[in-house]
Amino acid sequence: MTVIEIAGVSKRYGATVAADDVSLTVEKGEIFGLLGPNGAGKTTLVECVAGLRRPDEGRIRVHGIDPARERARLRQVLGVQLQDGMLPDKLRVGEAVALYRSFYRDGADTGRLLADLGLADKVDAPFEHLSGGQAQRLSIALALVGRPKVAVLDELSTGLDPQGRRQIWELVERIRDTGVTVLLVSHFLDEVHRLCDRVAVLDRGRIIALDTPDGLVAAEGGGQRVRLRVAGALDRDALAALPEVTAVTGEDGETVVAGTGNLMHAVNTELVRQGVTVTELRLEQATLDDAFLALTGRTTQENSDD
Amino acid sequence: MTDQITAARPGLASWVRLTVTEAKLVLRDTAGIVVPLGLPMLLMVMNGIGSDRTGVPELEGLPALDAVVVPMTLAMVVSMIGIVNMPSFLSAYRTFGVLRRLAVTPASPAMVLVAQVLVSLAQSLLGVALALGVARLAFGVEAPRSPLVAVGVFLLAAAAMYAVGMLIAAVSPTVNSAVAIGLVVFFAFFALGGGFGGRDNLPGWLADVGAYLPFGASFDSLGFSWMGVGPEPGQLLALAATVVVAGAGSARLFRWT
After folding, report:
1. In this complex, is the C-beta atom of A50 within 8 Å of any C-beta atom belonging to chain B?
2. How many Cα atoms within 13 Å fall on the side-chain side of residue A199?
């Protein structure tokens, strides 16, 4: 069942095109990633889904609801964790959750929600005393307290340490396990790879790829390289003739063998057959970073024109 | 599937909770409540000690403490809370994304506005009650001779000050600018309205302007209610006009994010 439908959506701010004919669908129970560098139009798209902005063109439906026209109904099914949303310094965790719970007719059990998010012992802590990770978890709690069918999580692990990020990721998976559909906005490839069932890569307002994370990596060229150094002569043509190998290149005495399938085993067997002494051998898996670089010509860290 | 999803606005319990929460936040902001609650009492004490309760013929036989200091203090409390405190709170909420976060829940950000106004009105009433209590118990200040007029003028004055405060919150890009604009506007109204001494010390045209700005109009009208003299219709009209113009302007200009 399609939960979020985005069809032909465009949004401009003056001369800047924030969304250019974007179309995608998110199915029930999916964790769907919106990936792209800063300024790619991720937040604009999310704000259109959340009913905070109206697209210039195109159609958006969330559980059949038009966010631009039926915001009040949308609020019953959509929970949103926005980037940079703060709370008053003196507001305590328990008060914030109880207040947000009161906005909904049916909502989550606040005690259990706080326990699930590891905030049970922070009930009386004012917002100003929370760490980045705690504030982020509270933010997620507020997005989930109305028991939404769809949750939008925008840059949820920005500013967290590695341990905090892993905790948040486990949390997102638990949220999905309760049947909630998740739209995850991120510019972290490892996050997207770990969590998302499917990913749309956005660049300058356009979708330039839409696939599973592994699909994106595979599309980039199968994704394996063996780098090796040997003492003595190496028959590179014999390596290149192997069915698993797609290319053999050399750099500074190092041989790079690109290919697919059980590449390492094939290369090893050939090296043993040639009887050369291997001094260095390592396997590189292509990552989503490589795929992203190939797709956009840039890394996710470049192009900060947001 | 979709037709069972119906819009549901937060109920009364939610409004009450939001208002109580706002009140707690205001109380926890200790520095913010010292001025509106402490300063009026201090003014009462300082002026009360120097007063010998001699009636002044020009003030319909009332001592200056009753006919001038008490009305001035009341006008000061509402203008300070409405023009300085409330916009700084609202502006902080907007700057730090508190309103934006509310905008994605069934709660309307307008709920925050209403809660803010209710809480700061309660704050004003508390400040007024404390000042009047001190004036009454320590210095024997009389109740206004026209009590209903006094209440009506006070509410009109509060509405005018809040409208100006909302306009300031609407046009201030940052929290600091909201506080700065609020203070400048407050002191301008206060000085021109006679807060730093009689308006007769000002050039004539400036004194006339000050009399129709919210502080001067509230101050004079409250003074008249204490003396039992009918208020100046022009000044009441000026207050009402402030409510309409500043209120409409802020409604037009206010940005939630």
Report:
1. yes
2. 28
How do beta strands A150-154 and A181-186 pair?
A: parallel
CA distances in angstroms from B167 to A53, A70, A249, B161, B248, listed in the order given? 24, 29, 68, 10, 9
Give B107→chain A minimum CA distance, Å. 6
ipTM of the complex: 0.79
The token duo for B99 is 């309103």
Neighbours of A96 (CB within 10 A): 23
What one-character DSSP code corresponds to residue A104? -
B25 touches chain A (CB under 8 A): yes
Q: How far apart are CA B231 and CA B107, in angstroms?
A: 41
Å between B4 CA and nearest CA of chain A: 10
User: Which residue, chain included where needed, has tokens 């069942």?
Assistant: A1
Candidates A63, A88, A103; nearest CB to B5: A63
Quick one: closest CA in B to A66, which residue?
B2
Q: Are B17 and A102 in contact (CB < 8 Å)? A: yes
Q: What is the largest CA-CA distance in chain B?
A: 78
Binned at pLDDT 50, 70 and 90, residue A234 comes out as confident
pLDDT tens readout for residues B167-194: 999 898 888 999 999 999 999 999 999 8
Six token digits for residue A63: 């559980």
d(CA A134, CA A127): 9
Nearest to B101 among A64, A78, A85 (CB): A85
User: Per-residue pLDDT tens for A86-109?
Assistant: 888 899 999 999 999 999 988 889
**Which of B3, B5, B95 best tests the A interface by mutation, with the highest count of A CBs <10 A?**
B5
A146, B105 contact by CB (below 8 A) = yes
Q: A4, A27, A46, A99: best mutation site toward chain B, by most B Cβ within 10 Å?
A: A99
- Number of alpha carbons in the 13 Å side-chain half-sphere of residue B94: 23
Confidence (pLDDT) at B140 = 87
Give the percent of chain A with pLDDT over 70. Answer: 95
Residue B13 contacts A where some CB pair is shorter than 8 Å: yes
